[in-house]
């Protein structure tokens, strides 16, 4: 068995979920600027997540789900996952984004499991609070290490794909490290860099 772990926002999905969610509140530009700083590694991921989710307070959960179920997937996402699974990979998604999006995408794209965050709501309205699996800059690496131990998968049989600073912690535990349309902070640590929005390019690397 081999393991492939993908980031979701700006990797399997073309954009940032939280930026799409901020749009109906008229806060897309404000949220996007915080997201951009966090992905470049200029802002602590946990702090940026708390700040951004707080801005979503008052958004209806029904609207959240509608947006999350209509996100644009990256070209080649479904084909790449299918090809990896054919080669014996377990395919996981680690996302600093939200279960509303990753849980839905799992059924469309065909990956095996998703680990992400949960937007807290009360009476169908977002409270501006968040919790979950991927709250910190080190969360992805920590989760990868634990999953490798459970599945008995070695670093040499692990592929990781991401685009931002919060994907760096995964790189330590994988022998195949892909920076996909990524920020410079991640490209510097990658074995393979893809600059065009076509996930099937990863298949050339493996």
CATH-level-2 architecture: 3-Layer(aba) Sandwich
pLDDT < 50 stretches: none
- CATH homology group: HAD superfamily/HAD-like
- How far the N terminus sits from the C terminus, by CA atoms, comes to 15 Å
Q: How many individual helices?
A: 10
Mean pLDDT: 96
Instruction: Report the structural category.
Output: alpha/beta
Q: How many domains, as an integer? A: 1
Main sheet attributes: strand count, strand direction, barrel closure: 7 strands, mixed
Describe this structure in words.
There is one protein chain. The mean pLDDT is 96. This protein has one domain (2-205): 3-Layer(aba) Sandwich (Rossmann fold). The protein has a seven-stranded mixed beta sheet, with helices on both faces. Strand 2 (89-98), helix 6 (99-109) and strand 3 (113-122) form a beta-alpha-beta unit. The protein is an alpha/beta fold. It has helices at 17-22, 28-39, 45-54, 61-68, 77-86, 99-109, 139-151, 168-171, 184-187, 201-205; strands spanning 2-6, 89-98, 113-122, 125-132, 158-162, 176-180, 192-194.
